[in-house]
Design a protein that fits this description.
The complex is a heterodimer of chains A (about 375) and B (about 325).
Chain A (H helix, E strand, L loop, with lengths): L1 H4 L8 H31 L10 H9 L2 E5 L2 E2 L3 E3 L5 E2 L1 H14 L5 E5 L5 H6 L5 E2 L7 H4 L6 E3 L4 E10 L14 E5 L3 H12 L5 E5 L2 H9 L5 E5 H8 L8 E3 L6 E4 L2 E3 L3 H20 L6 H10 L4 H6 L6 H5 L5 H9 L2 H8 L29
Parallel strand pairs in A: 1-5, 1-6, 9-10, 9-11
Antiparallel strand pairs in A: 2-3, 3-4, 7-14, 8-11, 8-12, 8-13
Helix pairs in contact in A: 4-10, 4-14, 10-14
Chain B lengths: L1 H5 L9 H30 L30 H33 L5 H15 L3 H12 L10 E3 L2 E4 L2 E4 L1 E3 L3 E3 L2 E3 L2 E3 L2 E4 H27 L3 H9 L4 H31 L11 H12 L2 H30 L5
Antiparallel strand pairs in B: 1-2, 2-3, 3-8, 4-5, 6-7
Classes of the chains: A alpha/beta (about 375), B alpha+beta (about 325).
Chain lengths: ~375, ~325
Amino acid sequence: MLQLRSPRLQPSRLQPSRLRRPRLRSLLAAAPVVLSLLLASCANDGGGGEGVQSQKMETIRSRGKLVCGVDGKLPGFSFLGPDGTYSGLDADTCRAVAAAILGDPEQVEYRDLNSSERFAALASGEVDMLARNTTMTLSRDAAGGNGIAFAPTTFFDGQGLMVPVASGIKTLKDLAGKPICVESGTTTELNLADRMREQGIAYTPLKFQTGDQTYAAYLGDRCVAVTSDRSQLAAKRSSFPQPDAHILLPVVMSKEPLSPASVNGDPVWADALRWTVYALFQAEELGITQANVAAKVAEAKANTNLADLRRFLGVEGDFGQQLGLPADFVPKAIAAVGNYGEIFERNVGAGSPLKLDRAENRQWKDGGLIYSPPFR
Amino acid sequence: MSDIQRVPWWRDRRVVPWLVQGAVGLAILVVIALLLGNLVRNLTAAGLLLTWRWLGQPASFDVAESLIPFDASMPYWRVLVVGLVNSLRAIVVGLVGATVLGTAVGMAAFSGNGLLRRLARVYVEVIRNIPLLLQLLFWYFVVFLALPNSTAAFQWPGVVLSKSGLYLAWFAEGFQWQGPTLVNDVWRAPLRLSVEFSALITGLITYTGAFVAEVVRGGIASVPRGQWEAATSLGLHWSATMRTVVLPQALRVIVPGLNSQYISLAKNSALAVAVGYADLYSVSETTLNQTGRALEVFLLLLGAYLLIDLVISVLMNGVNQLVQIRER
């Protein structure tokens, strides 16, 4: 530009203007593109389905896949096995939901998320739901906090501490002044601070971004203890080189109700998720298993007097429709993963390497906390 | 002159550029306004409009190490300051270390000693071609965590080295010289470098040092051969030649290159979270998770790193002015 303005080039000043014209034209040509981008960005925020219509469920149906945020590295809850498939209690929750909404439990796309990424991934719509051993808390639930809609708790847990047997540590007091490994962005990090403050114990929290790094530092002897949900500690211990060299201290530092979750603002989708989980609870209560669900459906169809069973299995009534789900979403979910008791035993209970006790996770009739409201 | 008057305004070179630039500027403003409006609308709908009140609420989480007093009952802004101070500590130590190491290696590339020259080459090529995150994890998990436990620590007079860190004797309260002591299997000393901090600065210094070495080497190479020969013919020793003749001339080439290396080091310090060091990013991440104020926390983070880098830039530009050859 500077050169063009210099007087020496004055005689040829027609040329630059001829050069400039195509530039103007290409700018004009770009205008429609820019305009359409603008319009698209305006159209994006116009939606927000009300009523039985759910934007999220429409997205899932048209995509043909449920995108489920999981941990992916936690045996018993969600673990990517050597054969490339996910297994675990959380993974089975994803499968049940996929079976309920899409009719096929295999149409799940798992997304491994660390504890710091999970809420951002959910809020941004990168995942449709979380089944990632996430503790339900007020600030995560509240619209002014993380703004998450929680489904019913699928695992009642408590925070524990794991130490090497050789360390001889028995109580929290023995940890005074010592480094403790914890995954950052978890409720366990806060609970640890609270409990230690209550008891006036000074300690050094070493925070890592991922579970892998946290447990690597613990196994590298950088910390004398690692804290997390007791189920997670048991799960991780089962993958240690010497599981017997580590013990869980008997202290339970907090309540950790681990629950699947979806984002606030789509109540229809949240309800569908909630009642799919309840259906797994209810199925156990009614004695419907993965093996006998087909027979039960046949029985319900044959006998019009079994009104409860008929409504539950979608033979009569419109529960599915009310939720925006297919009428047979309950038998589809049960056929995919079994009832809650079966899921528990297979992944974390007696039938698994974790061998966790049902404890609080028994049915309410057996003195536990697993309770489904009536399907009515 | 008169034919210029006759050019219509849509072909007038004094008018058209203004019009085009005005239109483009307006279009950009409209796009930004639309995006911002969209953001505000969606944030309002989600109840996530910017608010800063949470900064005053108690953080209720602990930080492993802090240069300023901190406990969990202090507010969030305080914990962010703790993180910032920790970050600055790593950045400052890293800058000094990387400069010293890089200058030494860069100069070694011109050494008469062939072994030294080749070692410098190998160091630069190996280090700068491996991702920094990988190197940090290596230093932390493979090297530093291989140190012995507290009870079996390496001990020298006034110095203790163990898996939990490096402990040094120093003046304690009341100017009393105090060495490291073992209390309940935990070392205590007036001066302590945690292994997390050590791993971070080791990684930052070796990594950035390799790049600085290349900048220094390039600077030295830019000094004409004749300068070396002139200095040598005056009877100056290699080190004297380097110090008094070559480096002062090389500096004006080196300093602008160093600027961007320093800025990368400051930004790379955010990888501290991988090795458990409580830097600004690490405490911000916990803050974000506890408060759910993702946008606010990230704005603060972006602002903080931008500010740090701008300060480094301004300082380096000042240095650059100083080392430029005054032309007369």
